Structures are given as C-alpha cells and as structure tokens.
User: Which sequence fits this backbone?
C-alpha cells in the first residue's frame, strides 16, 4: 500500500489537516499579499504539486475541491467528472474504463461517510472547471478568490446540499 | 429547481404529455453507421404513434454514427418529436451550446444531457476525448440558456433563446447504490425536467430507490421515466446481469426466458434444426416482450414514476406490441412545436 492510499483511507484526519491548513493560509494572507501572490505562488507551486501528487495523485487543476469530494481527486476519473459517479461503475466498485482501478467516486463516497466536517459537500453542485487555472497553486487561487469565480448563473448554487427528510446530515442515515 | 428561475414553456409534445399527467412513453432510435437517411425513416415508422418522443442516440457506445441532430432533423420533417442526446465526450462547452442553438432552430425541443461512453469502448479508441464539462454541468448550462438567457460564460443572449425540455439519465442500480438518489438530486438541482433511467428489470430494487427519491421529494421536481427493454434471449439476460454495469436482472426473469424456449432447448443440440432454432428464438422474443409489458404494469403502480422509456434498439418492431400490451395505446395526439 502506498503512502497516498494509506493517508486517503484516513479521511477524517485529512479533513482536519485541510481545515487547519486553510485557517493557517488564510491568516497568512496579509503577509502573502504583501510579498506578492505571484512570488509566493512560484515558491509554493512545486512543493504543493509534489505533496498532492503523492497523496492524492493530484492533476493540478488549480481549483482544489478535495474536501468536497471525500478527499479524493475527481480529476483522476477517466471522464474528469466533477459531479460523479457516472452510471458505468462496475458491480465490484471498479471503473468501467479502467477495470483494474476502483472508481474514484466510489472511494469519494465511502470516505465522505467518515467526514463529519465536509462530508455533506458531496451533494453540492460543482461548477465547470476553469481550465485557465491549470497548473496553478490551489492555495493561492483560493486566497485570490480565482478558484471560486463562477460564471453568472452559478452563484449561490454550490451551497445547495441535499438533505434527508428530517434535515439531518445526509450521510448519518447511511452509516452501517 | 431553484425558486427564482422562472420555467418557460418549451412547447414540446413530451412536455405536454408530462404536464397533463399522462403516463409518458418515449422510445429510442440509433442512427445508422452511414449517411442513409432512409434508415431513420424506416425505423421511425415502427415507432410513430406508439411513443410521445424518440431519443436519438449520440454516437452510442462511442461508435461513429449519423449525428443526433442530423437524424433529429429527419424526425422533425416526418412529424415526430426527437429527444436529442448530447454527450460531453465529443464536444466542449462552445460546441455543445452552438449545436443546441442549431438544433432549436431546426425545430428540436428536447435534449438529454449525458457524459457519454468513453471512447475506449468504441471504434475510435485512439481518439482524444473532450469531457470539458460533465453531464450535470451541461444540464445547468442548458437550463441557464433557457431560464436566465445566459451563455455558459455568463454573457447575455441577444435574440431567440434555445428553450429545451432538459433531460438527464439516472443509474439507480450502479455502485454506490445508496448515493444514487442524491446524485439524482444534484441533477434536479441543476435543472433536469425529466429523467430517463437505466434498464429496470428488478422491480423490488427500483421500488427501494423510488422510496428514497420520494423521501427527498425529487419526484415532485422532475418527471422520472423508468427505462425498460425487451430481452431477446436468456443468454442476453445473463450477459447483462454479468457484464453490464448498473443493470440488475433477477434470476426469476432469466428463468422465465429459459422456460419459454424449453420445448426446443430440450431437443439434443445435434438434432436441433434451423426451424427449431428459429421457433425457439421467436418464443424467447415473445416472452421478452411479455416480461417488458409486465414490468411496465408494475412500474405504473409505483408512485413518482411518470412514464417509461423503451429501449429496443435494433428491435424497433417490439415497441408496438409492448405499448399495446401495456394498455398505453393510443398515445395522446401529437403536439408539434410552433416553429
């Protein structure tokens, strides 16, 4: 088992790390802004790429939604589906296109059940990818707000979650 | 669907049938791997007056065929209503929008948004795919063109907007099965007016799915058409059960199919004549149609099922006996959109 999959199978730990990192980076925003986003981005892009590649097989889309997709990178799906899974998941939970690979969305779903902080975001609509951010550091595009720039018509819709009739967390009723 | 988005009437026949609360029937037509429009006309004659609209597949299983909009134009000319299938595999967001503008101008009013089969399955596995957006994002894009008058980039329309009845697919039985109703919810939130499901053979499993769909209130926000299709042989049933993702075929259905061909299957293989094989095949097909009829009758009893989508590709002759057998004939008078 690789380090990446060992970590990915600890989604609650990862979401805590993500939340802490998000807080930390947001607090540093004034400093980063003073140094210059461009300069800092040049510095942090290579380490971000390497770390996220090892852990998540990251494809550097530049607008990270890992915490909304069960800490599983949706760009590793052969159809690049951001709102998965598609209907082609095999009976054993593997990908229709790559039979040797588990469907990334099956993994995302299973992991999201163990993510009390961000798990419900699996039901949010993910907007189309902004391809012009490809290769950029997602931490910087988060600070500059570029990762959340959506076309007109998409504002607000990503906050919609689908809740059960009793308005509890969607996944609480699914725990075995 | 969000409150602020004002739904516009698109004026399609399918919309009319669904709004009237009539149990809808849609069919499917696979365009030929050629440029022969007469193939479309011949197949169409087998479907006409038995279905409310006909899906035209878009390079299904990633095999090159006549385009769905091209074939759809022939349907419009012949007074039949197409549901244009549109995949994300072959087009980026520019091409999807521009094709839909053209489809609207040519009289098409229904679109089914799909991600599409991966090219690895088709006859051009060395091709580059697109997958610029996914099917849910496409639903939203088409809904925004109609309801908000916006291109995907956010630019406003000047002039006629393309007003489509927007469809999406659902796979109730594909893994992870418990997430499927929520993914349907995402399609509804994106703006899907109607849903066509993957083939249903397992009524109990579909009832469970619909229980959850109703709990989430999705059946009131979209019209769900359950997918059905006639089986040709027990072998086909077993193949689908084993190899096609997202299809559940209960053993009792396979047994029914086997039973239908028993008089001929009991004959020793070497003694079985050509006529025997033909008779067995006919018996199987007859039973396949009957199973399909029985399934439709069961589906009609499930609250929240607004119609059926009959997938009888390369066996369009079966649609007539299925629709008649299920008591769904005659269909409501065809309302053609005002061009």
Assistant:
């Amino acid at each position: 088992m690789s380090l990446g999959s060992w970590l990915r199978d600890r989604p609650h730990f990862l979401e805590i790390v993500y939340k802490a990192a998000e807080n930390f980076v947001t607090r540093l925003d004034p400093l980063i802004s003073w140094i210059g986003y461009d300069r800092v981005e040049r510095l942090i892009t290579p380490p971000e790429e390497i770390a996220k590649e090892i852990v998540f097989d990251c494809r550097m889309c530049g607008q990270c939604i890992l915490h909304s997709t069960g800490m599983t990178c949706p760009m590793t799906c052969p159809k690049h589906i951001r709102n998965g899974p598609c209907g082609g998941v095999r009976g054993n939970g593997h990908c229709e296109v790559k039979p040797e690979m588990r469907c990334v969305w099956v993994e995302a779903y299973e992991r999201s059940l163990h993510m009390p902080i961000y798990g419900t975001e699996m039901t949010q609509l993910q907007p189309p990818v902004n391809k012009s951010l490809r290769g950029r550091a997602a931490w910087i595009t988060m600070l500059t707000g570029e990762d959340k720039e959506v076309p007109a018509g998409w504002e607000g819709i990503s906050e919609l979650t689908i809740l059960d009739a009793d308005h509890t967390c969607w996944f609480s009723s699914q725990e075995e | 669907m969000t409150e602020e988005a004002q739904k516009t009437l698109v004026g399609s026949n399918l919309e009319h049938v669904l709004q009237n609360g009539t149990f809808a029937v849609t069919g499917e037509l696979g365009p030929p791997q050629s440029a022969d429009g007469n193939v479309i006309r011949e197949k169409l004659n087998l479907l006409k007056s038995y279905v409310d609209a006909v899906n035209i597949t878009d390079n299904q299983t990633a095999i090159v065929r006549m385009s769905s909009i091209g074939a759809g134009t022939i349907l419009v000319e012949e007074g039949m209503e197409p549901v244009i299938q549109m995949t994300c595999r072959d087009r980026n967001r520019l091409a999807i929008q521009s094709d839909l503008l053209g489809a609207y101008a040519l009289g098409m009013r229904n679109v089914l948004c799909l991600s599409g089969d991966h090219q690895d399955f088709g006859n051009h596995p060395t091709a580059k795919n697109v997958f610029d957006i996914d099917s849910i994002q496409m639903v939203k894009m088409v809904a925004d063109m109609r309801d908000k008058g916006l291109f995907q980039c956010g630019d406003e329309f000047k002039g006629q907007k393309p007003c489509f009845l927007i469809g999406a697919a659902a796979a109730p039985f594909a893994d992870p099965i418990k997430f499927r109703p929520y993914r349907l919810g995402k399609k509804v939130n994106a703006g899907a007016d109607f849903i066509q499901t993957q083939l249903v053979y397992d009524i109990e499993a579909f009832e469970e799915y619909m229980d959850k769909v109703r709990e989430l209130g999705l059946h009131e926000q979209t019209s769900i058409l359950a997918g059905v299709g006639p089986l040709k042989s027990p072998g086909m049933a077993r193949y689908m059960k084993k190899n096609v993702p997202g299809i559940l075929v209960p053993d009792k259905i396979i047994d029914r199919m086997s039973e239908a061909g028993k008089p001929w299957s009991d004959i020793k293989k070497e003694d079985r004549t050509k006529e025997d094989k033909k008779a067995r095949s006919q018996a199987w097909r007859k039973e396949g149609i009957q199973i399909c009829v029985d399934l439709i009758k069961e589906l009609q009893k499930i609250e929240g099922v607004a119609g059926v989508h009959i997938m009888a590709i390369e066996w369009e002759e079966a649609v007539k006996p299925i629709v008649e057998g299920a008591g769904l004939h005659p269909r409501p008078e065809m309302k053609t959109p005002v061009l």
Q: What stands out?
A: Chain A has a mean pLDDT of 90. The longest helix of chain A spans residues 11-35.
